[in-house]
Specification:
- The two termini are about 20 Å apart.
- The longest helix has 19 residues.
- By secondary structure, this protein is α/β, with parallel strands linked by helices.
- A twelve-stranded mixed β-sheet has the order 3-4-2-1-5-12-11-6-7-10-8-9, sandwiched between helices.
- It has two domains: about 200 residues, Isopropylmalate Dehydrogenase (3-Layer(aba) Sandwich); about 120 residues, Isopropylmalate Dehydrogenase (3-Layer(aba) Sandwich).
Length: about 350
C-alpha cells in the first residue's frame, strides 16, 4: 500500500456530474489559481471540453491543458513536477467512454453513474494515502438515484465508502461554513417529517461530539458550540413542543458533562445571528449545531453562495465541496462562478496542514 504523510497536502478533486458545471468550475480553478498537488478524478475528454468552453467565455485562444494520468501513485510521487497550468486527470476503472454523448444540462443516468465511480475512486486514493483529502464538484442527486445508488448525496456515499471494510459506517456530519458562520447538521437529506423523527438524544449528542472533535482541524481545541432548538422560540418552555425539554436539552447537558463547551437549546430564529462573525461584530459562538437541513443551511447560503464550503466531519480523511449544485442552466456556457470551489479547495488545503 502506498502511504505518505498527511502533511503532503495532495488532493483529489472529483469531476462531479458531467452534465453540470463541475468540469467548468474545475477548469476555472486552474485558469485562475493553478492549484498545486491536485489530481482531478474524472473523464479527460469532458475536462478538455470544459476547458475549451471556459476559454471561449473568457475570450482566450485556449484553456488549461488537460493531460491523462495513467497511474495516480506515480503522480503522487512528485505532483509538483507537473506544470502549474496543466490539469492532471485520472480516469478510474469503471468510468465509461460514453459521457461525451450525454446531453449537457439534463439529468442522465450515465452522468450519475460516472459521478459515483469518481467519488469511490477518490476515496480509495485517500484510504491508500495517495492523497490527503478530497474536494468534490457537484453531483446531481436525481441522476445518482437513477444510477441505482442507495445514497441520497455525497455525504452518505462518502460515509459508506470511507468506513473500514466489514464495519458499520462511521458517524459523520455535514458542516456548511464560510468566514462568518459555521453550521453542523443533526439530520441531513430526508423529508422534514423524517428529520424531526431523527432528532434523538443520541443524534444530537453525537453531532455535538463530532463537531467538538473535528474543530481541532481548524485550530479550535475547545470550540464554543451553540445548539439550536427544533421548535419556534426553542419550544417556549414546552408551549410549542417538548423536544427541547426531553431531547435537545438533556443532550446538551450530557455534552457539557464530557467537558464540551455547548450551550442550548437556543431559539433558532436568533442563534445564527448571535454566532455570526462579521466586521465589528464578533460572534458569541464558533459553530451552530442545527437540527435539520434547511434550518442550518439557509443562514450560511444567505451570506453568499460564492463563499460557502461543505465539509464532511467524522471521515478518516478531509472532504470539502462547494455549497451549490450542478446548475444545469449554466452548464456548457463556461460562465459558472468558481468561487465556492476555490474556497473549498483552499479549506481542504488548510485542513490537511
Amino acid at each position: 500500500m502506498h502511504t505518505r504523510s498527511i502533511h503532503d497536502k495532495r488532493l483529489a478533486l472529483t469531476m462531479g456530474d458531467a452534465c453540470g458545471i463541475g468540469p467548468e468550475i474545475i477548469a476555472r480553478l486552474w485558469l485562475d489559481n493553478a492549484p498545486p498537488a491536485t489530481l482531478v478524478v474524472g473523464c479527460p475528454h469532458i475536462m478538455r471540453r470544459a476547458a475549451a468552453w471556459v476559454a471561449q467565455a473568457r475570450g482566450l485562444e485556449a484553456g488549461p491543458l488537460v493531460i491523462d494520468i495513467d497511474d495516480p501513485v506515480a503522480w503522487a510521487a512528485d505532483p509538483q513536477a507537473w506544470p502549474a497550468n496543466v490539469i492532471p486527470v485520472w480516469a478510474p476503472s469503471g468510468l465509461t467512454d460514453d459521457l461525451m454523448t450525454v446531453p449537457v444540462g439534463q439529468v442522465d443516468v450515465r452522468a450519475g453513474r460516472g459521478a459515483a465511480v469518481c467519488v469511490r475512486a477518490a476515496v480509495r486514493l485517500a484510504q491508500d494515502g495517495v492523497v490527503s483529502g478530497i474536494v468534490t464538484a457537484p453531483l446531481h442527486k436525481e441522476a445518482l438515484a437513477l444510477a441505482g445508488e442507495p445514497y441520497p448525496g455525497h455525504t452518505e456515499l462518502l460515509q459508506a465508502e470511507g468506513s473500514p471494510a466489514r464495519q458499520a459506517p462511521a458517524p459523520v456530519r455535514m458542516m456548511l461554513a464560510n468566514d462568518e458562520l459555521k453550521t453542523v447538521l443533526v439530520t441531513i437529506h430526508m423529508s422534514l417529517r423524517h428529520a424531526i423523527e431523527g432528532v434523538t438524544h443520541e443524534a444530537v449528542l453525537e453531532t455535538i461530539r463530532i463537531t467538538h472533535d473535528s474543530a481541532r482541524l481548524w485550530g479550535m481545541p475547545r470550540p464554543r458550540i451553540a445548539v439550536a432548538g427544533l421548535n419556534p422560540h426553542a419550544g417556549e418552555g414546552g408551549l410549542f413542543g417538548d423536544e427541547e425539554l426531553t431531547i435537545i436539552g438533556p443532550a446538551v447537558q450530557a455534552a457539557q458533562a464530557l467537558g464540551i463547551d455547548a450551550t442550548g437549546p437556543l431559539a433558532p430564529d436568533t442563534v445564527f445571528m448571535r454566532a455570526r462573525h462579521a466586521q465589528g461584530h464578533p460572534g458569541e459562538f464558533d459553530v451552530v449545531v442545527a437540527m435539520y437541513h434547511d434550518q442550518g443551511l439557509i443562514p450560511v447560503k444567505y451570506l453568499g453562495l460564492d463563499q460557502g464550503v461543505n465539509v464532511t466531519l467524522g471521515l478518516p480523511f478531509v472532504r470539502t465541496s462547494p455549497d451549490h449544485g450542478t446548475a444545469f442552466d449554466l452548464a456548457g456556457t463556461g460562465r459558472a462562478d468558481p468561487s465556492s470551489l476555490i474556497q473549498a479547495w483552499r479549506m481542504a488545503r488548510q485542513l490537511v496542514a
